[in-house]
Predict the 3D structure of the following.
Amino acid sequence: MPSPDPFQLLTAAWAKSTDPARRQVRVSLLAHLVIVGTVAEALLERDPDTSARLSRALKLSGDNARRFLAAMIALHDIGKLSPSFQAQSPDDAQALRALLPVRYTGEHIRHELLSMTILFETLRGLSWRKDAAALLVSAIGAHHGWVRSMDVAGEESSAGRGNATWADAQRRAALTFLQHLDVAVTSPAADLDALPFMTLAGLTVQADWIGSSVNAGGVEHLLKGGLRAAWDAFLPRARAELDRLRVLHPVALREPDSVGAAFDYLAPGTFKARPLQTVLAEVLAQSARARLVLIEAPMGEGKTEAALWAHLTSGNTRGLYVAMPTQATSNQMLGRAERFLQAHVTGSANLNLVHGGTALNTHLAELRERANLPGEHVAAGEWFTRSKRGLLTQFGVGTVDQALAGVLNGKFGPLRLFGLSGKTVVIDEAHAYDAYTGGLVKHLLRWLKDLDVTVVLMSATLPEERRTEYLTAFGVTPDARPTYPYVTVVDSAGVIRSRRFRAKRRKPVTIEHFRPSGMIDDSDGLTDIARCLIEETRDGGYVAAVVNTVERAQQLFMLVRAALERQYGPGAAAQALLFHARVAVEDRAVTEEEVLRVFGPDHKRRKGRRILIATQVVEQSLDLDFDFMVTDIAPVDLVLQRLGRVHRHVGRRRPRNLRQPRVRIYSPNHTLGPQPADQLAMPYLAGIDVLFLSWVALRQTARVSFPADVDRLVQMVYADPHRVTFAGSDRDVAAHEQKYTTWRLHADQERIKMRTLAMTHSVADPDRFEETSVAGEFQGDVEEMAARLATRLGEETVTAVLLHRSSAGLFLDAACTRPAPMSGPLSLDDARALTARSVRLGRAGLVQELKAAVVPAWEASGMTRMFRPLILDGGRREIGSTIVELCPLRGVVYHAVNARQEP
């Protein structure tokens, strides 16, 4: 029996099956390959930097490399030409049965693994080197998210491939496809490295996702004229699809003559560049294309604009990603990024907000709506706002976690790294991460260097050891640390240039400490803190208390409300505001907006009093201004971040007693310092030595002057702890020294564990990345997978959707007017409604029970897959030894069963 014609086989085989429920019609395998391949070619046309990088890696000319890569990406699904795949839809495989037997009762295999095997054999048959062929097909085979080695693919795909006739037909189909497109398939002379691998892997995913959504109508007819003709005829449609989705050409940014001109839009006619910005511009002008920029400067020196200037002068045309420490800071940065782009973009540009809580962001919704308007403008293309696609957009603002996920050995890491490649990546608050997340940041820096990224690291207070680690991770031998504040620039030749600049002088912040009140019922200090806040605002003022746990914030908030009503009468309680993360997404968004409105830079004419009770959500990057602050003791760099929000903006009218900036620090055990058993120490147990040393250093500091004391205190605690002297009686000093030695030993061991865990969870370094492979889809349980994919360590959490039960069913609101969508399929509005009522909770017994409560309809949706229902009766639910209460004032509150509960 003669072998079937390859194109007959590819036409008779199906790639997309008939599915009336989803209004999906059958699409032949050949049509799907052509659609995805032409989309890939159109993407490469639109992205000349990526195309050029791949051309250089493959030693091919531009046009030929583009068509070759597009053809290889087209063949990403050649593994669907197999009995194991085709047998899944017998009706759609009827035509194929006349050519090859489609009978298969064995275990289903992943078709992408068979694609790897077929393409590897095809390239080897064309004299490709084994290592180069394996690398190329592994990149293409990662289009469902997981990276596998060629050995794994060959072993796992053999059972479902079919007999020798099938194997021969598969190889001939792939080879004939390449030959009819007339592409060069010469093996690269040199080894392929990390750059082409991650680029090709990410490009394949993007082309497959876009191609899979393209209407295949008319493609089958075009194929009657031959593959090459059909390809060329469909290419304009692929380009049009990219236009529709706002997959734009690289955007040219206006590069003004000076920093002052670049940011004149911030204060038209009056903007004056700050010393940091001027000095950085001068150093960049001396450098042969900056690759790494490190900015270490106090708060309020204009670091963000300096970073944006670095992007303007970088020559990077693929775009910019600003990585912030939290969702709240990302939300605030979005507006600044939009104004920057509006001032500098010529033509249209995509701007996206990239984090897990964007579904209800009103600013992003406005940008999405703008994408539908005619003309050229800054907008958010809808396609890029979906899950996992955010980093592919030209310009993005989001959390650092989105970038760090690219180096975790999990699903779609290559897609994220591809999204960052060739861009400028700004990482704010580079000091603010523990040993685990800091280890991931270092690993990310190694990859970003190989992916031709310009990195800007910004920090107010960077310990010298962390600076050395970051420079070393980027492949640079660190220079001597300059005098603070300073900028460091590493250019493309590896030359380091560092320069100090003069920071603006600010009023020194007076440091005060609480004295024990002696009150039996105030062991946690909250009554003292509440009394202090009321006293300090006797003549008005906008003040804050930043505490270390949600429980402390909730309790303090109720004490302050009660004190305000006692002092000033009914209604005065509304002068207090609570801000923490244990609230539903939509409620947090409202509070966040209110905090920025009341305490932000635009509220210049303040009247009366406002008291903010907050957790650490306010200490990083948010532009807030307080007249006075109380803070729990915390690591010294975080305390400095907090007090940087006191009298942040000059020229404000402040009450007479608050005209000098002051911060009062609370720590239990006035003479002994923070202890591991203290509630406020819980977030910092892994660094209890740093917390204790911070307490000692701050107890010996009467005033903090900017910038000198910022660096002195940070280096004292982190870089040279021997400079900290313990005060008190000989007995106290001996006790302090013994505690510190014990805690330092324990903390060092914990930090080693955390760094090791970061290495274990990450893909291999770029110079040995071929070792990165998962042996099939992760086989551990859900908890293992969640831990493996974490970008930050901490207590185990679950995303709970707060539901209210009545006799009529389950509802999203306490008034039971908004029914909860519990059956599928979910619409986008359904998913957003569930997201609005979701909150991340962490409490051991609670998490385990909620994780077991799976809702099938939610699990079927990408947006809600990890959501679990928390069903409340009368606003409460008892789970094990915990009562969970949804309080309108405090958010989600935990009570111990049988414990006295606050009203």
